[in-house]
Amino acid sequence: MRLVVTGATGFVGARVIDRALSRGYEVTALARDPERIATRKGSGLRVEQWTVGDPLPPLGRSDAVLHLAAHIPADLSDPREASRCFEVNTNGALEVAMQAALQGVSRFVQFGSAQVYAPGTGPASETSPAFPVHRASYYLASKLAAEICLLAFGKASAMPVTVLRLASVYGPGMHDAGMVPTFVRTLGRRGSLIIQDGGRYTVDLVYVDDVVSLALEAAERAEGGVFNAGSGRACTSLEAARIVADAVGAEQHLIAVQGGSIDAPPPGFRALDVSKAIDGLNYAPLSFREGIEAWRTMTGLTDFQDGA
């Protein structure tokens, strides 16, 4: 396999490159800052400086593009960011697919977000309503629009387009901000952890290597359509904290809970129904407990990137 990876310096993109190279694939990594990929250089890796909006460099005989590059606003609630989101995340993604097709690339994998789903009860399937007005609407609307445009282009050009709607991804190499890194750092040093919203915040947490395996499987099989990429299970913030405490050997009494009302719907996001990916792409995601243990075994739960 010969792959092209955009957004190559990001958390998931870097992991895709490492796993693809370990399988013996050839990878062309496209990044704004090629020096950040210098440590990954090898006989199977070619690095090109590129940003969304630039013409694609010559891709040779590449089989598939895995498109992760995106604009994520610093302020997700700022409506002035909407035009930039659509310029990069929608129009930019479509332009990448069009240019790749002209160069003979036959498959396209788009990394989207499962936060596009409308709130509801029970796990969200790929056919559940998508209506992202509750959080990060401008960013998420641009990602959802990209899905529509890319799938339409793929249908018209006979280029299989796979859209992966990602749950909340965690694991080695993730940024040092967010719920999971905060739990790991605080409990790892035996600090007291206070969880807001009554510990009822709910999210589907998916291990990064599961997402990468699914993406590579999609590229290999050229299976078009939308696929959820989650663990298939909802996990509350309190449950997640207790699992992390067990993994780092911290006492459970270090975890305290504040706020929240049992009468109000729990905040957060729905679990994902991943049966389509299981059936169609041989997907076998880990539970959060299994993923944390895999991360602990691999790096000791210490491998973070600086930054937000």
Walk me through what this model shows.
- This protein is of the alpha/beta class.
- The protein has a domain of 214 residues: NAD(P)-binding Rossmann-like Domain (Rossmann fold, 3-Layer(aba) Sandwich), CATH 3.40.50.
- The protein contains eight helices and 15 strands.
- The strands form five sheets. A seven-stranded parallel beta sheet has the order 3-2-1-4-5-6-12, sandwiched between helices.
- Helix 3 links the parallel strand 5 and strand 6.
- The longest helix has 21 residues.
- It is globular and about 60 Å long.
- The model has no long low-confidence stretch (mean pLDDT 94).
- InterPro entries: Epimerase_deHydtase (IPR001509), Lipid_A_modif_metabolic_enz (IPR050177), NAD(P)-bd_dom_sf (IPR036291).
- Keywords: Plasmid.
- This is NAD-dependent epimerase/dehydratase.
- It holds the Pfam family Epimerase.
- Helix coverage percent: 25-40%
Query: Regarding quaternary structure, how should these chains be classified?
Result: single chain
Mean pLDDT: 94
What would CATH call the class of the domain at 2-172 and 205-233 and 272-285? Alpha Beta
Please give the number of β-strands.
15
Question: What is the annotated CATH architecture of the domain at 2-172 and 205-233 and 272-285?
Answer: 3-Layer(aba) Sandwich
Major sheet description: 7 strands, parallel
Order the strands across the largest sheet as they lie in space.
3-2-1-4-5-6-12
Strand content: 15-25%
User: Count the helices. How many?
Assistant: 8
Shape: globular
